[in-house]
Specification:
It is found in: Cell membrane. There is one protein chain. This protein is of the alpha/beta class. It has 3 domains: about 1-315, ABC transporter transmembrane region fold, CATH 1.20.1560; about 330-410 and about 490-555, 3-Layer(aba) Sandwich (Rossmann fold); about 420-490, 3-Layer(aba) Sandwich (Rossmann fold), CATH 3.40.50. Helix content is about 65%, strand content about 10%. It is built from 21 helices and 12 strands. The chain has a 6-stranded mixed beta sheet. Helix 17 links the parallel strand 9 (about 495) and strand 10 (about 525). Helix 2 runs antiparallel to helix 3 (about 50-100). The protein is elongated and about 120 Å long. The structure holds adenosine-5'-triphosphate. The site of adenosine-5'-triphosphate has 12 residues, from helix 11.
Protein backbone atom coordinates (compact mmCIF):
# COMPACT_ATOMS: atom_id res chain seq x y z
CA UNK A 1 0.00 0.00 0.00
CA UNK A 2 2.87 2.32 0.99
CA UNK A 3 4.63 1.85 -2.35
CA UNK A 4 1.38 2.45 -4.23
CA UNK A 5 0.96 5.71 -2.29
CA UNK A 6 4.49 6.70 -3.24
CA UNK A 7 3.49 6.51 -6.90
CA UNK A 8 0.61 8.93 -6.37
CA UNK A 9 2.69 12.04 -7.26
CA UNK A 10 2.70 10.62 -10.79
CA UNK A 11 -1.07 11.25 -10.94
CA UNK A 12 -0.62 14.92 -10.04
CA UNK A 13 -0.02 16.29 -13.58
CA UNK A 14 -3.24 14.58 -14.62
CA UNK A 15 -5.37 15.65 -11.64
CA UNK A 16 -8.09 17.12 -13.84
CA UNK A 17 -8.49 13.87 -15.78
CA UNK A 18 -8.35 11.92 -12.53
CA UNK A 19 -11.25 14.00 -11.17
CA UNK A 20 -13.33 14.02 -14.35
CA UNK A 21 -13.12 10.23 -14.72
CA UNK A 22 -14.89 9.32 -11.45
CA UNK A 23 -17.16 12.36 -11.68
CA UNK A 24 -18.54 11.29 -15.05
CA UNK A 25 -18.83 7.75 -13.72
CA UNK A 26 -21.10 9.11 -10.96
CA UNK A 27 -23.34 10.52 -13.71
CA UNK A 28 -23.54 7.11 -15.36
CA UNK A 29 -24.29 5.35 -12.08
CA UNK A 30 -26.96 7.90 -11.10
CA UNK A 31 -28.68 7.29 -14.44
CA UNK A 32 -28.41 3.50 -13.97
CA UNK A 33 -30.01 3.81 -10.56
CA UNK A 34 -32.91 5.85 -11.92
CA UNK A 35 -33.94 3.23 -14.48
CA UNK A 36 -35.74 0.68 -12.22
CA UNK A 37 -37.69 3.47 -10.45
CA UNK A 38 -38.82 4.93 -13.79
CA UNK A 39 -39.84 1.43 -14.85
CA UNK A 40 -41.74 0.98 -11.60
CA UNK A 41 -43.69 4.18 -12.31
CA UNK A 42 -44.42 3.10 -15.88
CA UNK A 43 -45.94 -0.16 -14.58
CA UNK A 44 -47.72 1.06 -11.45
CA UNK A 45 -48.96 4.41 -12.73
CA UNK A 46 -48.91 4.25 -16.53
CA UNK A 47 -49.82 0.66 -17.37
CA UNK A 48 -52.01 0.08 -14.26
CA UNK A 49 -54.14 3.13 -15.15
CA UNK A 50 -54.01 2.61 -18.92
CA UNK A 51 -52.34 6.00 -19.25
CA UNK A 52 -50.48 5.76 -22.57
CA UNK A 53 -49.34 9.35 -22.56
CA UNK A 54 -47.69 8.80 -19.15
CA UNK A 55 -46.04 5.61 -20.41
CA UNK A 56 -44.69 7.47 -23.46
CA UNK A 57 -43.49 10.40 -21.36
CA UNK A 58 -41.61 8.19 -18.92
CA UNK A 59 -40.40 5.99 -21.79
CA UNK A 60 -38.71 9.02 -23.35
CA UNK A 61 -37.38 10.05 -19.99
CA UNK A 62 -35.93 6.55 -19.60
CA UNK A 63 -34.20 6.89 -22.99
CA UNK A 64 -32.92 10.32 -22.05
CA UNK A 65 -31.42 9.06 -18.80
CA UNK A 66 -29.87 6.12 -20.68
CA UNK A 67 -28.31 8.61 -23.13
CA UNK A 68 -26.92 10.80 -20.33
CA UNK A 69 -25.61 7.64 -18.69
CA UNK A 70 -23.89 6.72 -21.95
CA UNK A 71 -22.18 10.11 -22.17
CA UNK A 72 -21.09 9.76 -18.54
CA UNK A 73 -19.74 6.25 -19.19
CA UNK A 74 -17.82 7.16 -22.34
CA UNK A 75 -16.48 10.38 -20.80
CA UNK A 76 -15.36 8.51 -17.71
CA UNK A 77 -13.51 5.95 -19.84
CA UNK A 78 -11.81 8.66 -21.91
CA UNK A 79 -10.55 10.70 -18.94
CA UNK A 80 -9.64 7.72 -16.77
CA UNK A 81 -7.67 6.28 -19.69
CA UNK A 82 -5.87 9.59 -20.25
CA UNK A 83 -4.92 9.81 -16.57
CA UNK A 84 -3.81 6.19 -16.17
CA UNK A 85 -1.95 5.82 -19.50
CA UNK A 86 0.00 9.05 -18.95
CA UNK A 87 0.63 8.09 -15.31
CA UNK A 88 2.14 4.80 -16.52
CA UNK A 89 4.17 6.48 -19.29
CA UNK A 90 5.76 8.85 -16.75
CA UNK A 91 6.64 5.99 -14.41
CA UNK A 92 8.15 4.03 -17.33
CA UNK A 93 10.18 7.10 -18.30
CA UNK A 94 11.51 7.55 -14.76
CA UNK A 95 12.30 3.86 -14.30
CA UNK A 96 14.21 3.95 -17.59
CA UNK A 97 16.02 7.16 -16.60
CA UNK A 98 16.95 5.65 -13.27
CA UNK A 99 18.33 2.47 -14.85
CA UNK A 100 20.42 4.68 -17.15
CA UNK A 101 22.12 6.03 -14.02
CA UNK A 102 22.62 2.56 -12.58
CA UNK A 103 26.16 1.51 -11.87
CA UNK A 104 27.25 -1.91 -13.11
CA UNK A 105 26.77 -3.11 -9.53
CA UNK A 106 23.16 -1.88 -9.47
CA UNK A 107 22.62 -3.57 -12.81
CA UNK A 108 24.11 -6.84 -11.54
CA UNK A 109 21.84 -6.82 -8.50
CA UNK A 110 18.59 -6.46 -10.51
CA UNK A 111 19.40 -8.40 -13.64
CA UNK A 112 18.02 -7.33 -17.03
CA UNK A 113 15.15 -9.86 -16.98
CA UNK A 114 13.64 -8.40 -13.83
CA UNK A 115 14.12 -4.83 -15.05
CA UNK A 116 12.29 -5.55 -18.29
CA UNK A 117 9.42 -7.21 -16.39
CA UNK A 118 9.20 -4.15 -14.17
CA UNK A 119 9.11 -1.67 -17.06
CA UNK A 120 6.49 -3.72 -18.92
CA UNK A 121 4.30 -5.94 -16.69
CA UNK A 122 4.54 -4.09 -13.41
CA UNK A 123 3.96 -0.65 -14.87
CA UNK A 124 0.96 -2.05 -16.78
CA UNK A 125 -0.39 -3.54 -13.54
CA UNK A 126 -0.32 -0.19 -11.72
CA UNK A 127 -1.78 1.49 -14.81
CA UNK A 128 -4.72 -0.93 -14.72
CA UNK A 129 -5.13 -0.45 -10.99
CA UNK A 130 -5.38 3.33 -11.46
CA UNK A 131 -7.71 2.95 -14.43
CA UNK A 132 -10.05 0.70 -12.45
CA UNK A 133 -9.87 2.94 -9.41
CA UNK A 134 -10.84 6.00 -11.43
CA UNK A 135 -13.51 4.29 -13.49
CA UNK A 136 -15.00 1.59 -11.38
CA UNK A 137 -14.04 2.27 -7.79
CA UNK A 138 -16.76 4.88 -7.41
CA UNK A 139 -19.16 2.79 -9.47
CA UNK A 140 -19.28 -0.21 -7.13
CA UNK A 141 -19.95 1.53 -3.82
CA UNK A 142 -22.16 4.15 -5.47
CA UNK A 143 -24.34 1.47 -7.11
CA UNK A 144 -24.50 -0.49 -3.89
CA UNK A 145 -25.31 2.40 -1.54
CA UNK A 146 -27.65 4.05 -4.07
CA UNK A 147 -29.66 0.86 -4.58
CA UNK A 148 -29.91 0.18 -0.81
CA UNK A 149 -31.10 3.75 -0.16
CA UNK A 150 -33.65 3.60 -2.98
CA UNK A 151 -35.02 0.26 -1.75
CA UNK A 152 -35.31 1.77 1.74
CA UNK A 153 -37.41 4.63 0.41
CA UNK A 154 -39.43 2.86 -2.28
CA UNK A 155 -39.78 -0.75 -1.14
CA UNK A 156 -39.26 -0.68 2.62
CA UNK A 157 -41.58 -3.67 2.99
CA UNK A 158 -39.02 -5.83 1.21
CA UNK A 159 -35.97 -4.38 3.00
CA UNK A 160 -35.60 -7.39 5.37
CA UNK A 161 -34.59 -9.48 2.33
CA UNK A 162 -31.59 -7.13 1.86
CA UNK A 163 -30.71 -7.37 5.54
CA UNK A 164 -30.19 -11.11 5.08
CA UNK A 165 -28.82 -11.19 1.50
CA UNK A 166 -26.20 -8.38 1.80
CA UNK A 167 -24.20 -9.87 4.72
CA UNK A 168 -24.15 -13.27 2.97
CA UNK A 169 -22.93 -11.65 -0.28
CA UNK A 170 -20.28 -9.68 1.60
CA UNK A 171 -18.92 -12.74 3.40
CA UNK A 172 -18.78 -14.61 0.08
CA UNK A 173 -16.93 -11.77 -1.63
CA UNK A 174 -14.48 -11.40 1.26
CA UNK A 175 -13.64 -15.09 1.28
CA UNK A 176 -13.29 -15.43 -2.49
CA UNK A 177 -11.31 -12.18 -2.83
CA UNK A 178 -8.72 -13.09 -0.24
CA UNK A 179 -8.38 -16.54 -1.78
CA UNK A 180 -7.97 -15.15 -5.29
CA UNK A 181 -5.53 -12.47 -4.01
CA UNK A 182 -3.20 -15.24 -2.84
CA UNK A 183 -3.68 -17.14 -6.08
CA UNK A 184 -2.91 -14.09 -8.22
CA UNK A 185 0.34 -13.45 -6.32
CA UNK A 186 1.33 -16.98 -7.34
CA UNK A 187 0.33 -16.20 -10.94
CA UNK A 188 2.59 -13.14 -10.92
CA UNK A 189 5.57 -15.16 -9.72
CA UNK A 190 4.95 -17.76 -12.43
CA UNK A 191 4.71 -14.93 -14.97
CA UNK A 192 8.14 -13.64 -13.85
CA UNK A 193 9.63 -17.04 -14.53
CA UNK A 194 8.02 -17.24 -17.99
CA UNK A 195 9.42 -13.80 -18.86
CA UNK A 196 12.90 -14.61 -17.63
CA UNK A 197 12.89 -17.86 -19.59
CA UNK A 198 11.72 -16.04 -22.73
CA UNK A 199 14.40 -13.37 -22.47
CA UNK A 200 17.11 -15.92 -21.85
CA UNK A 201 15.98 -18.06 -24.78
CA UNK A 202 15.69 -15.18 -27.24
CA UNK A 203 19.10 -13.83 -26.25
CA UNK A 204 20.74 -17.23 -26.53
CA UNK A 205 18.82 -18.66 -29.47
CA UNK A 206 21.96 -19.21 -31.54
CA UNK A 207 23.74 -21.07 -28.75
CA UNK A 208 20.64 -23.20 -28.19
CA UNK A 209 20.56 -24.12 -31.87
CA UNK A 210 24.30 -24.69 -32.10
CA UNK A 211 24.15 -27.12 -29.16
CA UNK A 212 21.00 -28.78 -30.50
CA UNK A 213 19.16 -27.95 -27.27
CA UNK A 214 15.92 -26.74 -28.87
CA UNK A 215 13.89 -29.72 -27.57
CA UNK A 216 15.33 -29.33 -24.10
CA UNK A 217 14.54 -25.60 -24.08
CA UNK A 218 11.03 -26.25 -25.42
CA UNK A 219 10.51 -28.68 -22.55
CA UNK A 220 11.77 -26.32 -19.86
CA UNK A 221 9.62 -23.56 -21.32
CA UNK A 222 6.67 -25.96 -21.30
CA UNK A 223 7.23 -26.53 -17.58
CA UNK A 224 7.16 -22.84 -16.63
CA UNK A 225 4.30 -22.22 -19.06
CA UNK A 226 2.30 -25.12 -17.60
CA UNK A 227 2.80 -23.78 -14.09
CA UNK A 228 1.56 -20.38 -15.24
CA UNK A 229 -1.46 -21.96 -16.96
CA UNK A 230 -2.36 -24.02 -13.88
CA UNK A 231 -2.05 -21.08 -11.55
CA UNK A 232 -4.01 -18.83 -13.90
CA UNK A 233 -6.70 -21.46 -14.14
CA UNK A 234 -6.93 -21.86 -10.36
CA UNK A 235 -7.16 -18.08 -9.85
CA UNK A 236 -9.74 -17.60 -12.62
CA UNK A 237 -11.80 -20.56 -11.40
CA UNK A 238 -12.13 -19.00 -7.96
CA UNK A 239 -13.34 -15.76 -9.53
CA UNK A 240 -15.69 -17.58 -11.89
CA UNK A 241 -17.22 -19.72 -9.11
CA UNK A 242 -18.06 -16.63 -7.12
CA UNK A 243 -20.49 -15.29 -9.72
CA UNK A 244 -22.90 -18.30 -9.87
CA UNK A 245 -22.89 -18.62 -6.07
CA UNK A 246 -23.74 -14.93 -5.72
CA UNK A 247 -26.44 -15.27 -8.36
CA UNK A 248 -27.85 -18.20 -6.41
CA UNK A 249 -28.04 -16.05 -3.25
CA UNK A 250 -29.63 -13.22 -5.23
CA UNK A 251 -32.20 -15.60 -6.75
CA UNK A 252 -33.15 -16.86 -3.32
CA UNK A 253 -33.53 -13.19 -2.37
CA UNK A 254 -35.74 -12.68 -5.45
CA UNK A 255 -37.95 -15.63 -4.46
CA UNK A 256 -38.26 -14.31 -0.94
CA UNK A 257 -38.92 -10.80 -2.25
CA UNK A 258 -41.68 -12.09 -4.52
CA UNK A 259 -43.17 -14.20 -1.77
CA UNK A 260 -43.21 -11.27 0.68
CA UNK A 261 -44.35 -8.96 -2.13
CA UNK A 262 -47.25 -11.28 -3.06
CA UNK A 263 -48.48 -11.23 0.55
CA UNK A 264 -48.26 -7.40 0.60
CA UNK A 265 -50.02 -7.13 -2.79
CA UNK A 266 -52.82 -9.33 -1.46
CA UNK A 267 -53.02 -7.09 1.57
CA UNK A 268 -53.20 -4.15 -0.86
CA UNK A 269 -50.12 -2.40 0.60
CA UNK A 270 -47.78 -2.95 -2.38
CA UNK A 271 -47.85 -2.68 -6.18
CA UNK A 272 -46.37 -5.07 -8.77
CA UNK A 273 -43.92 -2.48 -10.15
CA UNK A 274 -42.29 -2.16 -6.73
CA UNK A 275 -41.43 -5.87 -6.75
CA UNK A 276 -39.94 -5.66 -10.25
CA UNK A 277 -37.90 -2.62 -9.27
CA UNK A 278 -36.77 -4.43 -6.11
CA UNK A 279 -35.53 -7.39 -8.15
CA UNK A 280 -33.55 -5.00 -10.37
CA UNK A 281 -32.06 -3.25 -7.36
CA UNK A 282 -31.09 -6.57 -5.84
CA UNK A 283 -29.10 -7.32 -9.01
CA UNK A 284 -27.59 -3.83 -8.93
CA UNK A 285 -26.51 -4.38 -5.31
CA UNK A 286 -24.83 -7.64 -6.32
CA UNK A 287 -23.11 -5.92 -9.23
CA UNK A 288 -21.99 -3.07 -7.00
CA UNK A 289 -20.45 -5.46 -4.51
CA UNK A 290 -18.80 -7.54 -7.24
CA UNK A 291 -17.31 -4.49 -8.95
CA UNK A 292 -15.95 -3.13 -5.67
CA UNK A 293 -14.33 -6.46 -4.88
CA UNK A 294 -12.82 -6.71 -8.39
CA UNK A 295 -11.24 -3.29 -8.01
CA UNK A 296 -9.94 -4.15 -4.57
CA UNK A 297 -8.43 -7.32 -5.98
CA UNK A 298 -6.74 -5.44 -8.83
CA UNK A 299 -5.36 -2.90 -6.37
CA UNK A 300 -4.08 -5.68 -4.11
CA UNK A 301 -2.46 -7.32 -7.14
CA UNK A 302 -0.74 -4.07 -8.03
CA UNK A 303 0.88 -3.75 -4.57
CA UNK A 304 3.62 -6.19 -5.56
CA UNK A 305 4.18 -4.35 -8.85
CA UNK A 306 4.28 -0.95 -7.15
CA UNK A 307 6.79 -2.36 -4.72
CA UNK A 308 9.08 -3.57 -7.48
CA UNK A 309 8.82 -0.23 -9.33
CA UNK A 310 9.64 1.57 -6.10
CA UNK A 311 12.67 -0.66 -5.58
CA UNK A 312 14.11 0.64 -8.86
CA UNK A 313 13.20 4.28 -8.24
CA UNK A 314 14.66 4.23 -4.73
CA UNK A 315 17.80 2.29 -5.55
CA UNK A 316 20.85 4.02 -4.24
CA UNK A 317 23.25 4.59 -7.12
CA UNK A 318 26.57 3.11 -6.13
CA UNK A 319 28.67 5.33 -8.35
CA UNK A 320 28.14 8.91 -7.20
CA UNK A 321 29.05 12.24 -8.74
CA UNK A 322 31.56 14.27 -6.69
CA UNK A 323 30.03 16.89 -4.39
CA UNK A 324 32.75 19.39 -5.33
CA UNK A 325 34.12 18.35 -8.73
CA UNK A 326 37.77 18.89 -9.53
CA UNK A 327 38.59 22.05 -11.49
CA UNK A 328 39.12 20.57 -14.90
CA UNK A 329 42.17 20.94 -16.97
CA UNK A 330 42.58 18.75 -20.02
CA UNK A 331 43.18 15.16 -19.00
CA UNK A 332 46.67 14.01 -20.05
CA UNK A 333 46.30 10.33 -19.26
CA UNK A 334 48.55 9.48 -16.30
CA UNK A 335 47.00 6.67 -14.32
CA UNK A 336 47.83 5.55 -10.80
CA UNK A 337 46.33 2.78 -8.65
CA UNK A 338 47.12 3.01 -4.92
CA UNK A 339 46.49 -0.13 -2.83
CA UNK A 340 43.24 -0.91 -4.59
CA UNK A 341 41.07 -3.76 -3.30
CA UNK A 342 37.85 -4.76 -4.99
CA UNK A 343 35.18 -7.44 -4.59
CA UNK A 344 31.90 -7.98 -6.45
CA UNK A 345 30.14 -9.68 -3.57
CA UNK A 346 31.34 -7.24 -0.88
CA UNK A 347 31.89 -10.17 1.46
CA UNK A 348 35.60 -9.58 1.72
CA UNK A 349 36.62 -12.00 -1.03
CA UNK A 350 38.66 -9.67 -3.15
CA UNK A 351 38.88 -10.11 -6.91
CA UNK A 352 41.62 -7.44 -6.94
CA UNK A 353 44.07 -7.35 -4.04
CA UNK A 354 46.25 -4.45 -3.10
CA UNK A 355 46.84 -3.27 -6.67
CA UNK A 356 49.31 -0.40 -7.00
CA UNK A 357 50.96 0.92 -10.15
CA UNK A 358 51.78 4.11 -12.00
CA UNK A 359 51.45 4.70 -15.72
CA UNK A 360 52.78 7.74 -17.57
CA UNK A 361 50.66 9.54 -20.16
CA UNK A 362 51.09 8.02 -23.61
CA UNK A 363 52.41 4.67 -22.34
CA UNK A 364 51.09 1.37 -23.61
CA UNK A 365 50.34 -1.16 -20.90
CA UNK A 366 49.89 -4.81 -21.73
CA UNK A 367 47.83 -6.85 -19.27
CA UNK A 368 48.02 -10.61 -19.30
CA UNK A 369 47.02 -13.40 -16.93
CA UNK A 370 44.97 -16.52 -16.60
CA UNK A 371 41.24 -16.51 -17.14
CA UNK A 372 39.28 -15.07 -14.21
CA UNK A 373 42.44 -13.52 -12.72
CA UNK A 374 40.89 -10.02 -12.62
CA UNK A 375 42.16 -8.31 -15.79
CA UNK A 376 38.79 -6.96 -16.98
CA UNK A 377 37.83 -6.00 -13.45
CA UNK A 378 40.99 -3.92 -13.10
CA UNK A 379 40.31 -1.81 -16.19
CA UNK A 380 36.60 -1.45 -15.35
CA UNK A 381 37.63 0.57 -12.31
CA UNK A 382 39.23 3.28 -14.48
CA UNK A 383 35.99 4.69 -16.00
CA UNK A 384 34.29 3.97 -12.64
CA UNK A 385 32.05 1.18 -13.87
CA UNK A 386 32.74 -0.06 -10.34
CA UNK A 387 34.41 1.73 -7.42
CA UNK A 388 37.13 0.03 -5.35
CA UNK A 389 36.25 -1.26 -1.88
CA UNK A 390 39.39 0.44 -0.61
CA UNK A 391 42.38 2.25 -2.08
CA UNK A 392 42.37 5.04 -4.62
CA UNK A 393 42.73 5.59 -8.33
CA UNK A 394 44.19 8.77 -9.77
CA UNK A 395 44.24 10.25 -13.24
CA UNK A 396 46.78 13.07 -13.66
CA UNK A 397 47.17 13.07 -9.88
CA UNK A 398 43.45 13.71 -9.24
CA UNK A 399 41.33 11.05 -7.55
CA UNK A 400 38.91 9.81 -10.23
CA UNK A 401 36.04 10.21 -7.77
CA UNK A 402 36.58 13.96 -8.00
CA UNK A 403 36.02 14.15 -11.76
CA UNK A 404 32.49 14.73 -13.04
CA UNK A 405 31.52 11.26 -14.27
CA UNK A 406 30.71 12.40 -17.78
CA UNK A 407 34.00 14.25 -18.13
CA UNK A 408 35.94 11.25 -16.86
CA UNK A 409 34.23 8.82 -19.20
CA UNK A 410 34.48 11.22 -22.15
CA UNK A 411 38.26 11.00 -21.96
CA UNK A 412 38.27 7.20 -21.91
CA UNK A 413 37.71 4.92 -24.86
CA UNK A 414 36.62 1.48 -23.72
CA UNK A 415 36.33 -1.52 -26.01
CA UNK A 416 34.85 -4.31 -23.94
CA UNK A 417 35.50 -7.99 -24.35
CA UNK A 418 32.10 -8.53 -25.94
CA UNK A 419 31.58 -5.91 -28.63
CA UNK A 420 28.19 -4.30 -28.09
CA UNK A 421 26.71 -2.61 -31.12
CA UNK A 422 23.21 -1.24 -31.58
CA UNK A 423 20.69 -1.74 -34.34
CA UNK A 424 20.98 1.11 -36.84
CA UNK A 425 23.57 2.13 -39.40
CA UNK A 426 27.33 1.83 -38.90
CA UNK A 427 27.46 5.63 -38.98
CA UNK A 428 24.95 5.87 -36.11
CA UNK A 429 27.00 3.40 -34.13
CA UNK A 430 30.17 5.39 -34.71
CA UNK A 431 28.50 8.65 -33.71
CA UNK A 432 27.90 6.97 -30.38
CA UNK A 433 31.62 7.54 -29.87
CA UNK A 434 31.57 11.15 -31.05
CA UNK A 435 28.31 12.85 -31.88
CA UNK A 436 29.83 15.50 -34.15
CA UNK A 437 32.18 13.13 -36.04
CA UNK A 438 32.41 13.90 -39.75
CA UNK A 439 33.06 11.47 -42.57
CA UNK A 440 36.83 12.00 -42.48
CA UNK A 441 36.91 11.21 -38.73
CA UNK A 442 35.03 7.99 -39.40
CA UNK A 443 37.28 7.00 -42.27
CA UNK A 444 40.41 7.70 -40.28
CA UNK A 445 39.21 5.81 -37.18
CA UNK A 446 38.09 2.89 -39.36
CA UNK A 447 41.56 2.80 -40.97
CA UNK A 448 43.24 2.70 -37.57
CA UNK A 449 40.97 -0.10 -36.37
CA UNK A 450 41.51 -2.12 -39.56
CA UNK A 451 37.80 -1.80 -40.29
CA UNK A 452 37.87 0.38 -43.40
CA UNK A 453 38.36 -2.48 -45.82
CA UNK A 454 35.33 -4.49 -44.77
CA UNK A 455 33.11 -1.41 -44.32
CA UNK A 456 33.87 -0.31 -47.88
CA UNK A 457 32.75 -3.68 -49.17
CA UNK A 458 29.38 -3.46 -47.42
CA UNK A 459 26.26 -2.28 -49.22
CA UNK A 460 25.85 1.38 -48.30
CA UNK A 461 29.27 1.39 -46.54
CA UNK A 462 28.85 3.57 -43.42
CA UNK A 463 25.10 3.53 -44.11
CA UNK A 464 24.98 -0.27 -43.77
CA UNK A 465 22.17 -1.26 -41.40
CA UNK A 466 23.14 -3.44 -38.46
CA UNK A 467 20.54 -5.84 -37.14
CA UNK A 468 19.77 -6.17 -33.42
CA UNK A 469 22.96 -7.38 -31.72
CA UNK A 470 24.81 -6.76 -35.06
CA UNK A 471 24.09 -10.36 -35.99
CA UNK A 472 24.76 -9.53 -39.65
CA UNK A 473 28.45 -8.95 -38.87
CA UNK A 474 31.13 -11.48 -38.05
CA UNK A 475 32.80 -11.55 -34.62
CA UNK A 476 35.97 -9.92 -35.98
CA UNK A 477 33.99 -7.24 -37.83
CA UNK A 478 32.09 -6.40 -34.66
CA UNK A 479 35.37 -6.03 -32.76
CA UNK A 480 36.79 -3.76 -35.46
CA UNK A 481 33.69 -1.56 -35.39
CA UNK A 482 33.76 -1.39 -31.60
CA UNK A 483 37.39 -0.26 -31.82
CA UNK A 484 36.56 2.30 -34.52
CA UNK A 485 33.87 3.70 -32.21
CA UNK A 486 36.42 4.05 -29.41
CA UNK A 487 39.16 5.51 -31.64
CA UNK A 488 36.85 8.13 -33.11
CA UNK A 489 36.52 9.94 -29.82
CA UNK A 490 40.30 10.33 -29.61
CA UNK A 491 40.43 9.33 -25.99
CA UNK A 492 43.26 10.20 -23.66
CA UNK A 493 43.02 6.73 -22.16
CA UNK A 494 42.14 3.77 -24.35
CA UNK A 495 41.18 0.41 -22.91
CA UNK A 496 41.14 -2.56 -25.23
CA UNK A 497 39.84 -5.55 -23.30
CA UNK A 498 40.72 -8.58 -25.38
CA UNK A 499 39.18 -6.68 -28.25
CA UNK A 500 41.43 -8.19 -30.91
CA UNK A 501 40.73 -11.81 -30.00
CA UNK A 502 38.73 -12.40 -33.20
CA UNK A 503 41.12 -10.48 -35.43
CA UNK A 504 43.92 -12.03 -37.47
CA UNK A 505 47.52 -11.36 -36.43
CA UNK A 506 48.25 -9.11 -39.41
CA UNK A 507 45.29 -6.81 -38.77
CA UNK A 508 46.11 -6.75 -35.08
CA UNK A 509 49.66 -5.61 -35.84
CA UNK A 510 48.30 -2.89 -38.13
CA UNK A 511 45.93 -1.70 -35.36
CA UNK A 512 48.83 -1.48 -32.94
CA UNK A 513 50.95 0.40 -35.42
CA UNK A 514 48.11 2.83 -36.17
CA UNK A 515 47.71 3.42 -32.46
CA UNK A 516 51.38 4.27 -32.08
CA UNK A 517 51.37 6.53 -35.13
CA UNK A 518 48.03 8.28 -34.85
CA UNK A 519 47.57 8.35 -31.09
CA UNK A 520 51.07 8.67 -29.61
CA UNK A 521 49.80 10.62 -26.57
CA UNK A 522 47.08 8.15 -25.70
CA UNK A 523 47.60 5.88 -22.71
CA UNK A 524 46.62 2.41 -23.85
CA UNK A 525 45.63 -0.54 -21.65
CA UNK A 526 45.77 -3.60 -23.84
CA UNK A 527 44.40 -6.80 -22.32
CA UNK A 528 45.17 -9.94 -24.21
CA UNK A 529 45.66 -13.61 -23.58
CA UNK A 530 48.36 -13.68 -26.27
CA UNK A 531 51.91 -12.63 -25.44
CA UNK A 532 52.42 -11.66 -29.10
CA UNK A 533 49.76 -8.95 -28.74
CA UNK A 534 51.38 -7.20 -25.81
CA UNK A 535 55.08 -7.90 -25.98
CA UNK A 536 55.88 -4.47 -27.42
CA UNK A 537 54.11 -2.63 -24.59
CA UNK A 538 56.07 -0.15 -22.46
CA UNK A 539 55.01 -2.07 -19.36
CA UNK A 540 53.30 -5.42 -18.96
CA UNK A 541 51.30 -6.38 -15.87
CA UNK A 542 51.01 -10.05 -15.14
CA UNK A 543 47.82 -10.59 -13.17
CA UNK A 544 47.48 -13.73 -11.14
CA UNK A 545 44.55 -14.37 -8.84
CA UNK A 546 43.82 -10.67 -8.36
CA UNK A 547 47.34 -9.44 -7.73
CA UNK A 548 49.98 -7.96 -10.01
CA UNK A 549 52.33 -10.88 -9.86
CA UNK A 550 54.98 -9.04 -11.88
CA UNK A 551 55.42 -6.00 -14.06
CA UNK A 552 58.04 -4.82 -16.51
CA UNK A 553 58.92 -5.05 -20.17
CA UNK A 554 58.67 -8.29 -22.10
CA UNK A 555 62.37 -8.95 -21.75
CA UNK A 556 62.40 -8.22 -18.00
CA UNK A 557 59.41 -10.47 -17.39
CA UNK A 558 60.83 -13.39 -19.32
CA UNK A 559 63.65 -13.33 -16.81
CA UNK A 560 61.80 -12.31 -13.65
CA UNK A 561 58.29 -13.78 -13.84
CA UNK A 562 57.64 -17.51 -13.74
CA UNK A 563 53.99 -16.97 -14.58
CA UNK A 564 54.78 -14.81 -17.61
CA UNK A 565 57.47 -17.15 -18.80
CA UNK A 566 55.01 -20.04 -18.35
CA UNK A 567 52.42 -18.34 -20.55
CA UNK A 568 55.06 -17.43 -23.09
CA UNK A 569 56.42 -20.94 -23.20
CA UNK A 570 53.02 -22.51 -23.73
CA UNK A 571 52.29 -20.08 -26.53
CA UNK A 572 55.60 -20.02 -28.34
CA UNK A 573 57.41 -23.16 -27.39
CA UNK A 574 60.62 -23.44 -25.38
CA UNK A 575 62.86 -23.40 -28.43
CA UNK A 576 61.84 -19.83 -29.29
CA UNK A 577 62.61 -18.82 -25.74
CA UNK A 578 66.14 -20.14 -26.00
CA UNK A 579 66.52 -18.50 -29.40
CA UNK A 580 65.55 -15.12 -27.86
N1 LIG B 1 29.74 -8.91 -12.54
C1 LIG B 1 30.36 -9.82 -11.77
N2 LIG B 1 29.80 -10.25 -10.63
C2 LIG B 1 30.41 -11.15 -9.85
N3 LIG B 1 31.61 -11.69 -10.11
C3 LIG B 1 32.22 -11.31 -11.24
C4 LIG B 1 31.63 -10.36 -12.12
N4 LIG B 1 32.48 -10.16 -13.17
C5 LIG B 1 33.55 -10.96 -12.93
N5 LIG B 1 33.41 -11.65 -11.79
C6 LIG B 1 34.36 -12.57 -11.19
O1 LIG B 1 35.56 -11.85 -10.93
C7 LIG B 1 36.69 -12.60 -11.26
C8 LIG B 1 37.58 -11.82 -12.22
O2 LIG B 1 36.87 -11.64 -13.44
P1 LIG B 1 37.47 -10.84 -14.66
O3 LIG B 1 36.40 -10.73 -15.69
O4 LIG B 1 38.08 -9.60 -14.17
O5 LIG B 1 38.59 -11.85 -15.13
P2 LIG B 1 39.54 -11.77 -16.40
O6 LIG B 1 40.92 -11.91 -15.90
O7 LIG B 1 39.22 -10.60 -17.25
O8 LIG B 1 39.10 -13.11 -17.13
P3 LIG B 1 39.04 -13.44 -18.71
O9 LIG B 1 40.44 -13.45 -19.22
O10 LIG B 1 38.43 -14.80 -18.73
O11 LIG B 1 38.21 -12.41 -19.32
C9 LIG B 1 36.18 -13.91 -11.83
O12 LIG B 1 36.28 -14.88 -10.80
C10 LIG B 1 34.74 -13.67 -12.15
O13 LIG B 1 33.97 -14.81 -11.91
Amino acid sequence: MKSLNKLLPYVKPYTLFAILGPLLMCVEVAMDLLQPTIMQHIIDVGIANNNNAYVMKLGFFMLFTAFIGLIGGVGSTVYSTKASVNFAADIRRDVFKKTEQFSSENMDSFGTGKLITIVTNDVTAVQQALMMTLRIFVRGPFLFIGAVVIVWFTARELFPVLLVAIPILMVLIYWFSSKSGQLFARVQRAMDRVNTKLQETFAGIRVIKAFGRSDFETNTFKQVNDTLTKRNMAAEQVILTLMPIMLFVVNIGVVFGMWMGAIKINEGTLQVGVILAFINYLNIIMNGLMTSSNVLMQITKSFTSANRIQQVLETEIHIREPITPAALLKIKGEVEFRQVNFSYSKNGEYVLKNISFQVKAGETIGIIGSTGSGKSTLVKLIPRLYDPDSGEIFIDGVNIKEYPLEKLRESIGFVQQKATLFSGTIEENLRFGKEEANFEDMEEAAQSAAAAEFINKLEGKFGYELMQGATNLSGGQKQRLAMTRAFIREPKILILDDSTSAIDALSEASVQQALRQNHPDTTVFFISSKVSSIQDADQIFVIDDGIIEASGTHKELIINSNVYRGIYETQKGKEILSYE
